[in-house]
Amino acid sequence: MNLLYAAAAFLLALLLVMVGVTRVGSWLIERRNPPVGSFIDIDGARIHYVHVPPGANADLPPIVFIHGASANLNDQMVPLRPLLEGRAEMLFFDRPGHGWSSRGPGNNENPSAQAATIAKLMDRLGIRQAIIVGHSFGGAATTALGLEHPEKTRGLVFLSAATHPWPGGATSWYYSLTSVPVIGRLFAETVTTPAGLMQLDGATTCVFAPNKVPDDYAKRASIPLVLRPSAFRANAIDVEGLYRYALATAPLYREIKAPTVVVSGDRDTVVYEEIHSVGLARDIPNSELLWVHNLGHKPDWIAPDLVVAAIEKLAGKPVDLQATARTVEARIAGDAYGAGCIDETVMDGELAPE
Question: pTM, whole model, 2 decimals?
């Protein structure tokens, strides 16, 4: 009996230590990655955003950027804002529950709910209509905007999107575990921060593979913010709910009217590009697919010039997107990083952004 008491005491002590480590780790993460924008309340969710005004000689319509899983507004703002500064009004924001945005009562895993929050944020900031640029999970929210808020979508750009049902609908085990109400919360409060910090470099390598991770990427994009318990849990619930959303919504994509550009690499290690990107180009009328050889899951960082060209095309400029895609291919043709990463790990390896 004494051994049982001793074992129980040891487990309790270990649990308390892990909680303490997680709390300290989260505090350090927040200290090193402070907010960079403003805050606004949208139906009980405190949304963190950066609203960039247009320049005096702006030649592009407003652009709204929707980041993927495990990420925050910096993941698109750092590589793309410098290329578009002065040319357009831009809105970058942390999706509900991510980065510095709170979850709020209505923003569950369904991308439709998050799209409604985004539409209200646009209204509050006076953005009547915009080109929407969604990366990975952000692509699902982009489809929701196109379907449910068409008046706000002048055009859609999908970057390595996650939008269609995939075989089996499985995700990573830690997402499934974290999304469970009680056990998941305990897991998030004890394991995710220390374990995530140890796994971060390897996961990031696989998200970018076969392309090279940009120098100081995790620091510049504030990626460790996802390793805080509340953010990790919100992220897990999002990813776990994506299959159900895609199953119900993919048959409706044919109703999307906005001009669309779909950007995808053929070496994506995070999502099935043949299902999601090819599916979008097939299902959405008036869409163009840019299929880039040897590009992984991060066109926003590896091919930002192609993303800008897609925006320009939707703005009505005479841009040869296929020629731009071939230029990107030539630039990355020799990339062979992340050799140990497994292709087609759908919604997997997501300690780095998807």
Answer: 0.94
